[in-house]
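Morning!

This is the sequence you dropped in the shared folder:
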Amino acid sequence: MLATLAKRTLLVLVGPAIFLFVASAPTFCGGKRGFRGWYWRRVSRACSWLLWFLDVTVEISDAAREALRTDENSIIAVNHRSHLDGFSMLHVIPDEKWVTFGAKKELCEAALLKRGFEGAGLLKIDRQKGRDALSSLTEAIKEMPKRRSPILFVEGTRAAKPGLAPFKAGAVLIAQETGRAIRPFVISHSDRLLPRGKVFPFKGTIHIDVLDQMLFGAEENTDAAVARLRGAMAAAYDAQTGEVTELP
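The structure's back. Tokens below.
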């Protein structure tokens, strides 16, 4: 108990400095060659520190880590349980694998974050523009090096009920258009550690399953492809949690 209190006190003291660095570095250095690879490695370290301060550990297999080291030409599709999810993913993704996030337009255009997010290469998602937003996102991903993968939350928002929520079709549509595979990430137990409305998480372990790449041809029915992706991710999620995801 004393160790946890000491860590959280230290987080309150040093956390603002870490956040300031992460938020401001792209503003001053975002145009330099090689910046984004360097920057996301620093963000990954910051996420690891944060989880240590919070007494949260992340469980992932050695085989999954190794698969990510050589992963190319993929879109990372992940379920969303709590605000710990992004930190947990960046904590376990190895340096050899480059990533970026898709973030809603409102967040990307926030006054204090806009220049930093642009420098970091975040993908802006305008949910109000539907197909136009999907088209611009697809074009941005086509221009990415194969080594870099966008991370997309396929449920669109945090799930509020047991099991996986219905999936949005965006990740599958982009995969079909770009020819990239989808690399599913399945996060379990993060919502138990940080339920909605709670500020500090409970001490505990988050589990991440990294599934094999899945290919979705341009000729495959999109609804069927989304169902196939959700079925694979639900099987892994339900096996970890004991919950039951309702499937069509």
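Headline: Residues 118 and 236 are 34 Å apart (CA to CA).

More detail when I'm at my desk.
O.
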